């Protein structure tokens, strides 16, 4: 499992293109993924958000494959306006790379304030995504 170390990065608000950009840490857990697509899933998520650390736990004793991704960066306001949108974009990138449903949980932490927001995505969300 990924060991979080908040002291490794000190990120402050910065001005990007005349807009104040807010630093976030994002932690992603994707369960029941296709283990042969770990690299594709990690690459897809990295195109949406900066991924600094990864971890993988293979399926064992009824527990499904689980991929963990973590990274800190600035919310790209030119492309994504809210952390809800960021979580949705990450989730959709993972589903696309996995070529099917997997349970995705995205935890967003605004590093300039508290608290943490967690977004879980269901099979209904996946069905809605596929209809788009």
Describe, in plain words, how this protein is organized in 3D:
The chain is of the alpha+beta class and 132 residues long. The protein has one domain: Alpha-Beta Plaits, CATH 3.30.70. Helices cover 27% and strands 33% of the residues. Strand 4 (53-57) and strand 5 (66-74) form a beta hairpin. The chain is globular. The N and C termini lie far apart (34 Å).
> Which residues sit in consecutive blocks of at least 5 with pLDDT less than 50?
1-18
Rg is 15 Å
**Counted beta strands:** 7
User: Per the principal axes of the C-alpha atoms, what is the gross shape?
Assistant: globular
**Helix-strand topology string:** EEEHEEHEEH
Q: Could you say how many structural domains there are in total?
A: 1
Portion of residues in helices?
25-40%
Taking the sheet with the most strands, its summary is: 5 strands, antiparallel
Spatial separation of the terminal alpha carbons: 34 Å
Proportion of residues in extended strands: 25-35%
CATH top level label? Alpha Beta
User: Whole-number average pLDDT?
Assistant: 81
Structural class: alpha+beta
Please give the order of strands in the largest beta sheet.
Answer: 4-5-3-6-7
Short overview:
The chain is α+β, with helices and mostly antiparallel strands and 132 residues long. It has a single domain, classed as 2-Layer Sandwich (Alpha-Beta Plaits), CATH 3.30.70. The protein has helices at 38-48, 83-98, 123-131; strands at 14-16, 19-21, 23-31, 53-57, 66-74, 103-110, 116-121.
